[in-house]
């Protein structure tokens, strides 16, 4: 795991070495063990290394023996030993023992056909000095990021946006960065910027499963080399599916344990992380170090459930409590690690737990991705229920809508229930599950934003049909609606929400502390297989991840998976009703965000007041306002 950056100015304009050095300096946290820079006229490549495999033999940039090819690489490829043997038979003479040279050799041998062969996570750049051509590639699921900007006739790229903002040259000056209003709207709607956009007009992300080619002239050529395919396999019994699930999870986890350093794991009380830790325990030669986040005194604390599982599996179990006052103090540091606004529910816990884990290990395995490929989200089941009840709710809408405008209903519980019922009715009125996905992952509703946004900002960004518009933007290709409703929602989770939110906060939260986080469930080979599973093996009644649960049960004690999974997130509703709200309010009022022209100050104050009074649960949007305020302060006010 590392950090990469580079600048291909083109046209023979030299890249200053100090520009790449400054960019590398902004991502020391991603690679504190080593660094390297390569300048070849109008291109510069930079690398920061976190040594995990081949500790002494993998400095980057790395070059082919003839000097034609150079690579900078962030990530890990777990099947590199098998590929290495095949490439040795082809004739490549290896001088190192890790995965970086294997990737370079694979590209030289197969070109873009190499990418689907790599099992792992990566964001990388390969330079062809002979053809003066740069290649950027990102892993199929988007586990590792690549940002890029096309400016001044060239391209700059990096693992984080901060590398781009550090670049400048004597003859061209600094690159331009202006706030993207659509990105701001994305953030207050979803808690993150929807990709491939970023918070800056000039910066984009390379989409997952894509490769970018750019030569000395012309525009970049961006191609997709992998996409998820829902093709159900028929004829297997339930027992066969469960057996295959055990094999896939166990063997994929085993490959993800490949390292020359100690590998630990994040453990909650749920099936996802339990499956990973149980698989690790079956293959490890020493007790697995397992790390758990606790929320003392709240309804979502899972430390007891995790402790029982850890004891059963013989783990060395380390827990870390998170109190509201500690989380409030952390907000600015957590936001700084993201360098564009991020209000992911688990951003603070991941950051905090990663800090603890990094004191013990350099690598952890995580359970992310299971809900996406095995239909584990409650919101997926809620969307199916909304679709079924749509006709009835349309008939009752005139009566039910009147309840929305009744003043406070006497108790916080009833007010929250009314709020959730209105959201459910909104979902039921939509056309399909792509639209219900966007409705179900929003952190603020259209009626909240209508009051919250400054009028000009609202008129420019808010739509009368926001979910239909988003469906056309992301799933407008012919045949997209042919998928069954559950598959529609799963595809959206897998390709839109996961890389933009879940994987982003996992990468940033862990790498802020020089910790490599691996996600076995998102091996694209495992994903390819999982998407062949029949619906009833994923969703059985109201039980999601059915086959995975049955596969993991024999590895755990009876009843281990019976407890309700509560999620790796902050208890927003409870904390914003207490002292945590003061941290968020202070972040808002003390930053220039309150005068940025996006949100109405009186509307923000109203949200805080309504939440404190129990009239509505505004925890998610209040958290987003706090994080946006931290980002604004760090980006603009601090200057």
Could you describe the 3D structure shown?
The protein is built from 25 helices and 21 strands. The two termini are 31 Å apart. 45% of the residues lie in helices and 15% in strands. The protein is α+β, with helices and mostly antiparallel strands and 639 residues long. The protein has a six-stranded antiparallel beta sheet with strand order 2-3-1-9-8-12.
- Overall number of strands: 21
Round the mean pLDDT to the nearest integer and report it: 93
Give the helix tally: 25
What level of helicity do the residues show? Answer: 40-55%
Taking pLDDT < 50 over at least 5 consecutive residues as the criterion, the unreliable ranges are none
**How much strand?**
15-25%
Q: What descriptive keywords fit this protein?
A:
alpha+beta; 25 helices; globular
């Amino acid at each position: 795991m590392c950090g990469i950056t580079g600048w291909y100015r083109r046209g023979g304009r030299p890249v200053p070495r100090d520009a790449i050095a400054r960019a590398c300096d902004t991502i020391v946290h991603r690679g504190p063990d080593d660094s390297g820079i390569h300048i070849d006229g109008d291109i510069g490549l930079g690398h920061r290394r976190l040594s995990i495999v081949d500790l002494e033999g993998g400095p980057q940039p790395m070059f082919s023996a003839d000097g034609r090819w150079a690579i900078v690489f962030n990530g890990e490829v777990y099947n590199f030993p098998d590929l290495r043997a095949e490439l040795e038979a082809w004739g490549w003479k290896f001088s190192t023992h890790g995965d970086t040279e294997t990737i370079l050799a694979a590209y030289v041998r197969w070109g873009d056909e190499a990418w689907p062969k790599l099992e792992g996570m990566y964001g990388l750049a390969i330079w062809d000095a002979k053809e003066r051509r740069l290649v950027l590639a990102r892993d199929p699921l988007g586990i590792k990021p690549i940002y890029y900007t096309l400016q001044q006739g060239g391209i700059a790229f990096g693992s984080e946006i901060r590398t781009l903002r550090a670049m400048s040259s004597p003859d061209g000056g600094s690159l331009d960065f202006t706030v993207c209003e659509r990105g701001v709207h994305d953030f207050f709607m979803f808690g993150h910027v929807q990709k491939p956009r970023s918070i800056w007009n000039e910066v984009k992300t390379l989409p997952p499963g894509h490769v970018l080619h750019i030569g000395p002239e012309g525009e970049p050529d961006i191609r997709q080399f992998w996409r998820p395919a829902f093709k159900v396999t028929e004829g297997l019994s339930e027992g066969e599916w469960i057996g295959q699930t055990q094999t896939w999870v166990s063997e994929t986890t085993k490959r993800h344990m490949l390292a020359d350093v100690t590998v630990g794991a994040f453990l909650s009380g749920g099936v996802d992380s339990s499956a990973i830790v149980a698989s690790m325990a079956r293959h490890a030669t020493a007790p697995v170090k397992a790390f758990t986040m606790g929320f003392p005194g709240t309804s979502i604390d899972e430390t007891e459930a995790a402790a029982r599982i850890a004891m059963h599996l013989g783990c060395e179990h380390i827990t870390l409590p998170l109190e509201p006052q500690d989380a409030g103090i952390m907000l600015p540091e957590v936001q700084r690690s993201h360098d564009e606004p991020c209000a992911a529910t688990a951003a603070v816990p991941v950051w905090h737990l990663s800090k603890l884990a990094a004191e013990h290990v350099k690598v952890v395995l995580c359970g992310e991705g299971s809900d996406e490929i095995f239909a584990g989200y409650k919101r997926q089941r809620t969307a199916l229920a909304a679709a079924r009840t749509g006709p009835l709710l349309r008939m009752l809408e005139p009566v039910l809508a009147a309840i929305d405008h009744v003043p406070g209903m006497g108790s916080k519980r009833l007010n929250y229930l009314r709020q959730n019922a209105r959201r459910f009715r909104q979902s039921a009125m939509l056309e399909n599950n792509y639209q219900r996905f966007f409705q179900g992952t929003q952190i603020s509703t259209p009626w909240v934003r209508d009051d919250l946004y400054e009028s000009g900002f609202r008129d420019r960004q808010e739509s009368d049909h926001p979910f239909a518009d988003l469906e056309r933007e992301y799933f407008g290709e012919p045949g997209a609606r042919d998928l069954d409703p559950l598959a529609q929602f799963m595809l959206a989770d897998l390709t839109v929400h996961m890389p933009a939110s879940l994987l982003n906060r996992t990468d940033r939260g862990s790498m802020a502390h020089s910790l490599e986080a691996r996600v076995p469930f998102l091996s694209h080979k495992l994903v390819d297989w999982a998407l062949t599973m029949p619906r009833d093996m994923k969703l059985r009644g109201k039980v999601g991840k059915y086959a995975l649960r049955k596969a993991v049960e024999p590895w755990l004690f009876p009843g281990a998976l019976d407890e309700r999974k509560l999620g790796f997130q902050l208890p927003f509703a409870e904390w914003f009703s207490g002292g945590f709200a003061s941290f968020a309010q202070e972040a808002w009022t003390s930053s220039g965000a309150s005068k940025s022209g996006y949100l109405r100050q009186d509307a923000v104050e109203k949200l805080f007041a309504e939440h404190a009074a129990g009239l509505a649960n505004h925890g998610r949007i209040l958290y987003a306002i706090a994080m946006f305020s931290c980002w604004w302060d760090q980006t603009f006010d601090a200057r």
